[in-house]
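Action item from last meeting closed. Structure (60 res):
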């Protein structure tokens, strides 16, 4: 199947958070459901590698 994805559902929430006295940070919470072919942790790691590869042209 050309459009197969082991990811079945994704949601996220961004909340303001603090680090010590600094309130200038955001906290990202993701909920990821898969069909069992890949773990949510592996899916995020794979996506992060793709993003890193795609953005490397701007860094290097």
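Sequence:
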């Amino acid at each position: 199947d050309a459009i197969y994805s082991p990811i079945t559902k994704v949601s996220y929430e961004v909340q303001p958070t603090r680090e010590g006295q600094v309130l200038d940070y955001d906290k990202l919470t993701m909920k990821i459901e898969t069909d069992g072919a890949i773990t949510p942790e592996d899916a995020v790691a794979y996506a992060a590698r793709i993003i890193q590869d795609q953005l490397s042209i701007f860094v290097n």
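Note appended to the action item: The mean pLDDT is 93.
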